[in-house]
Amino acid sequence: MKQWDQFEQLEEWGNVTQSNRAWIIKIVLLLGLLTAILASSGCAVKLISSYDETTDIAVSALHKKTETHLLKLEALDGLPECKYENHRAFYEQAKVEVSSIAVRAAAIPKNEITTEQVTLLAKNVDTLEKLHKIACLSREQIMPLRIQFNSSFTGILKLELAKRRGE
Fold first, then answer.
1. pLDDT digits (tens, 9 = 90+) for 22-49
2. What values do phi and psi take at 136, rounded to 5?
3. What is the DSSP letter of 47?
4. Could you give the CA distance from residue 146 to residue 134 in angstroms, rounded to a whole number?
5. Phi-psi category of residue 153: left, alpha or beta, with phi > 0 → left and psi -120 to 50 → alpha
């Protein structure tokens, strides 16, 4: 008799499970959907810093000053005014501006790429200064230097603009 009672209990449990199966499935699906929504909205991983308008403006301004300096050097090609001593102020100011941009970039969390790019820009300024100390630069010598500077400026600005767009 005891075995028969156990069988009836199993049968009743089976019937209860079948009648509530739809509810159980709905609850499981709802919990899964809620988990997916919470995971996608609350756990956004940010791998790079946000757009920094100050860096954007400072880099753009330094680009204009550098291009102006290169144009002056081209215009002075072959003239005594082309000597380094006449342009020392540009190099001092450019180094201060690059240093300021570098300090700001390093202070922003998750901004290592911009910091590395600014370091390369500083090396370009140093290279230009060293070459200018040796002798006046010709138009032919300035052309590849301009390309290097434009690559550095473009890289920094492209990254900042991509940050602004959220890419």
1. 766 777 777 777 676 666 665 565 678 9
2. -60, 150
3. -
4. 18
5. alpha
